Amino acid sequence: MSDPAASVPRVARAEYVQEALAGLDRTAGAGVDPALPLYATTFVVVDLETTGGAPDGGGITEIGAVKVRGGEELGVLATLVNPGVPIPPFITVLTGITQAMLVPAPPIEQVLPSFLEFIDDAVLVAHNAPYDVGFLKAACAKHGYRWPNPRVLDTAALARRVLTRDEVPNRKLGTLAAYFRTATQPNHRALDDAKATVDVLHGLIARLGGHRVDTVGDAIEFARAVTPTQRRKRHLAEGLPKVPGVYIFRAADDRPLYVGTSGDIATRVRSYFTAGEKRARISEMLAAAERVEAVECAHSLEAEVRELRLIAAHAPPYNRRSKYPERMVWLKLTDEAYPRLSVVRNLAPTDTAYLGPFRSKQAAELAAAGFHDAVPLRQCTHRLSRRTTMPACALAELGRCPAPCEHRITPEEYDDRAAAPFRTATTSDPQVVVDALLARIEVLARDQRYEEAAVVRSRLAAVLRATVRMQRLVGLTGIAELAAARRAAHGGWELALVRHGRLAGAGVSPPGVHPRPTLEAIRATAETVLPGHGPVPRASAEETERILSWLERAETRLVEISSGWASPITGAGRFRDLLAKAENGGSHQLSTERS
């Protein structure tokens, strides 16, 4: 697609003076480094005169813009613009711009290419910036130009934060110009108002030093509506490294309040003190925080894993996720003559038929209900004997239980019809359970019992979600050692050593150097991880899932592996599409899924 500006003539009537172009920074406007000092930042101060209507792509009658950096004027752009509509009389009285002045002026679609070139690589400044920026964005959208989305600094908002009512009664441009004694007085003409705004901007920047604001990013955030607590505590973000890792907000007694992770610790922590952070619990946390501790990590995977382990170890009060991994539960098939499903906190070494882990007891019970709908597992909690009988419950009378309590079924038949499908579903193929649940959904939907069908559908989703997850975990945790690598953003390789689903070591090889010596050094100092029982023997399920997500990325390469990494060919993974439908669709979508 060609650039629309290429076919539009340059603005003949614009006064365009550009100086010292060779010395300007070449960072993109929207990507101007927020850490750039204010004295080194290029600003374009702009002011518009309009017909007074809404920003609909037209209505601009005059543009004035001044480019400055470090107090030096670098360029000026000023032009009248023909809005294509009559000018209201009150606008003429206010600005002095008449209809006759605008007839020979170029339309906005001819002015935009020069203006967009002029503001390139700069921070846009305006007084009441939303008004001016709104007109400019609408004009770009109407005439097919891409708005460059520069960083924007509003001098009116900045003045509200810097100046008190005792200093100025209001934040109008005329009032601020008088207070700062600007060389040019605003008079509702675009260029003069822009020049006055330049002096106001410099006066405000001079006041920012007392607020410990010295970068363009800090100035933009300072102008926004941050809370007094954020402003008072923003020094906590100083001196942090711009590297991947974990950050810990600590209270006065050194107690961890909140643990987070980021690919850039400094930038992420700084965001907690901006107007974009509006969470009430985080505001409460910032009020109690006294310092921020940074834990540097080799790469993002190590940072994510360290975050999980720190949250699990300290349970910070302001973290909501990943706390208390020990509260995970399992759905276990009991070891008795007529086994049943039981929700337990821990697995014993002798347990061989189980499903999980589940994040809550309710999730485990929902999956159990799915198995009870599909296979005739008993639901009573009595311990049954092979020799003596017990009275049957109502489920037996309804035909939903084979009544092993009355010995209507032998232990061998019960195992074949009820227990074996659970074992098979959890370790390899859940086809029997899936078919039974789909058949039940089909019957209920055909009878227009849609609410009951939806309940069974949710149980099917719970069964599939748990079986897919556990088989995926088992595939990795059964591997004694796995080494993987991924290209680092700035060269070199991100390396990870995984043992039984636990991150045992991590590092980054330098650019231009073979990664093998780094990998061997990681292996020599890596954590020793012994095998254990269950699908997640030596790490939390969340940690192993984070590792799996990292390993499954297209750019990750397997370097070494101690044994095969595989999933059952007829395993639960082949039902991922069905799981997605069960989670997101209606029951009628599932009636055609039976094999």
UniProtKB/TrEMBL annotation:
The keyword Cell inner membrane does not apply. InterPro entries: DnaQ, GIY-YIG_endonuc, GIY-YIG_endonuc_sf, GIY-YIG_UvrC_Cho, Ribonucl_H, RNaseH-like_sf, RNaseH_sf, UvrABC_protein_C. SMART domains: EXOIII, GIYc. Pfam families: GIY-YIG, RNase_T. Keywords: Exonuclease, Hydrolase, Nuclease. Residues 242-320 form the GIY-YIG domain. PROSITE patterns: GIY_YIG. GO terms for molecular function: DNA binding; DNA-directed DNA polymerase activity; exonuclease activity. GO terms for biological process: DNA replication; nucleotide-excision repair. One of its GO terms (cellular component) is excinuclease repair complex. This is DNA polymerase-3 subunit epsilon. It comes from Micromonospora kangleipakensis.
